[in-house]
Write a structure and sequence with these properties.
Helix 5 (72-84) runs antiparallel to helix 6 (88-99), helix 5 (72-84) runs parallel beside helix 7 and helix 15 (250-263) runs parallel beside helix 17 (285-297). Strand 1 (492-497) and strand 2 (500-505) form a beta hairpin. This protein has helices spanning 4-17, 21-33, 40-52, 57-65, 72-84, 88-99, 113-123, 126-139, 145-156, 162-171, 177-189, 193-202, 208-220, 224-240, 250-263, 266-278, 285-297, 301-310, 316-328, 332-344, 353-366, 369-382, 389-401, 405-413, 421-434, 437-450, 455-468, 471-484, 514-526; strands at residues 492-497, 500-505. Strands 1-2 form a two-stranded antiparallel sheet. It is mostly helical.
Length: 528
């Protein structure tokens, strides 16, 4: 007779050697013959191995369903597996079955609720979160930090109920750095930047994820200069602190590089690149892709290609980043060459919708109409990718620039989604290039219907009428613009000097050195 201790050790050893479902079934049969078909310890080990190592949720559920009275740990394992594999409906149905069981059967514990709440936000909605919240309070786990933080995050997934999340946060008796960071991340996700920053400044103690939350939040909300300022502040605080506990990690670096790319801060981007090497951060595919993207957006294509060539494990994101870098700067042939290199490498990497946006952009900049058409057909027919508005926009732009308006209109009419401003703007641009005033008038009217308060569209239509000699129509359009107080988005440019970006808008005098700038401009004009 094998002792329980020896059997436990033997079972765990056999599990470690399992590499196939058949091996697991043999071990399960062995346990059944020993009379352990309903032993929770062994059922838990089998179920966990099935979900974590084999990713076979159907057989894991088979094991679970054949248990007469599964305990809370088995419920937790099964619900966690469903939530982790994005099968949120199954997770919620199993949770519902659990709470409907009569006492004294298994009751949910603090480890189940985070996964249940995650599934609520993904599969159902706000009312389900409130329902689970009430069950949490009835179970007596309402003051548990893990459950409170999960509830906080769940409420923040819904913009209509940020108030409930903040009420929960304010009522928490034991706020830790995780709950502070969850609240900050939620505010950032909802675009409530001011509330997020105020909370960040109030934090009694900060860790790297909390810094990342506020830096990433600014980047995702388009506040790139502020994100860079926070990154610099983090570096300054970290260098002055003892123990260097808040040293930037890969997430910090990637978010900061994204901000550099959007603002054109090449010098700071290079400094961050150096920081990665100086501080021994792993140059993962994650960081390499961010570097390629940053160098590409800043126009340093040679550096982007160097980083790309040094990347050993190239994911699809790596290839897409390099293709889009070349496409962005009009290097059509280089973009296409990278795509052909990807297809020839023989790996498991297959192009996705982002790949084809890059390729279509490249064809547009290079005037490669037939090539663009070929890639569009390849995307839909060979890879079964449903065209999105960006793909249609690229194709219409490509055909419009080439003066092939009949084909462009066929594309617009055949779209399965409603044309947006990008579509009509692309068509209008092509009409202006080739002097198709009639079609330009049609496109401009579509744009005005979509955004009546955008003065730029009205001005374009007035200019079109002017070219046709329809002066009465010009006066009507300008009268409507004046009545609506329509705006025109001003042009913007920026320049990086001494690691600082200076932004300038058309007819803007808010820069602190405006007088000095205009004095120099006047002196230059006087030379002519």
């Amino acid at each position: 007779m094998v002792s329980p201790q020896n059997l436990n050790s033997h079972v765990l050893t056999l599990l470690e050697s399992c590499i196939h479902l058949n091996h697991l079934k043999q071990l399960q049969a062995f346990l059944i013959t020993l009379g352990h078909a309903q032993t929770h310890f062994y059922a838990f080990k089998l179920l966990r191995f099935c979900t974590l190592s084999l990713s076979d949720l159907s057989y894991a559920r088979f094991i679970f369903d054949h248990l007469e009275s599964p305990n809370v740990h088995l419920y937790t394992a099964m619900i966690t597996a469903y939530a982790s594999h994005s099968d949120h409906t199954s997770a919620l149905l199993l949770y519902r079955n659990m709470v409907r069981l009569p006492p004294p059967r298994s009751r949910p514990n603090q480890f189940i609720y985070p996964h249940v709440l995650k599934s609520c936000t993904q599969a159902v909605g706000l009312e389900s979160v409130r329902m689970v919240h009430s069950q949490v309070l009835k179970s007596g786990l309402g003051q548990h930090p893990v459950v409170q933080t999960s509830l906080l995050d769940a409420y923040l997934r819904f913009s209509s109920d940020a108030g409930s999340a903040r009420f929960l946060f304010d009522e928490m008796t034991d706020r830790n750095v995780v709950s502070w960071t969850a609240m900050i991340s939620g505010y950032m996700r909802l675009g409530q930047i001011g509330n997020a920053v105020l909370l960040f400044e109030e934090m009694p103690d900060r860790d790297v994820p909390s810094w990342n939350a506020v830096i990433a939040g600014h980047t995702q909300n388009g506040l790139f200069t502020e994100a860079i300022s926070l990154f610099r502040r983090m570096i300054f605080v970290e260098e002055g602190a003892q123990g260097r506990k808040n040293k930037p990690n890969q997430v910090t670096v990637v978010c900061s590089l994204s901000a550099c790319g959007h603002t054109g801060m090449l010098q700071l981007g290079k400094w961050i690149h150096g920081y990665v090497y100086r501080n021994g951060l792993v140059l993962s595919s994650f960081v390499s892709n961010a570097l390629v993207d940053m160098y590409g957006k800043c126009g340093s294509l040679k550096e982007a290609r160097k980083v790309f060539d040094r990347t050993l494990e190239r994911s699809l994101t790596s290839w897409n980043s390099m293709i889009n870098c070349f496409a962005l700067h009009g290097q059509s042939q280089n973009a296409i060459s990278v795509f052909e290199e990807m297809m020839a490498c023989g790996s498991d990497v297959k192009p996705d919708e982002v790949t084809f946006i890059g390729l279509l952009n490249a064809c547009t900049h290079g005037g490669l109409v037939e090539k663009g058409r070929l890639y569009f057909e390849m995307m839909t027919q060979n890879y079964g990718i449903e065209p999105e508005i960006e793909h249609y926009g690229c194709l219409v732009d490509l055909l419009g620039r080439a003066g092939r308006f009949e084909e462009a209109m066929e594309v617009v009419k055949g779209m399965r989604i409603e044309p947006d401003e990008v579509i009509w703007g692309s068509l209008l641009n092509g009409c202006k290039i080739h002097g198709r005033i009639d079609l330009a008038e049609f496109a401009a009217k579509k744009l005005i219907d979509m955004d009546p308060n955008n003065g730029g569209y009205g001005i374009m239509l007035a200019n079109i009428y002017g070219e046709l000699g329809k002066w009465d129509e010009v006066r009507k359009v300008r009268k409507v613009l004046k009545k609506r107080n329509a705006y025109k988005t001003p042009g913007c440019s920026w320049i990086e000097i001494d690691n600082q970006v200076h932004q300038f808008y058309s007819i803007d005098k808010t820069h602190p050195r405006t007088e000095e700038i205009y004095d120099i401009l006047d002196s230059l004009i006087s030379l002519y």
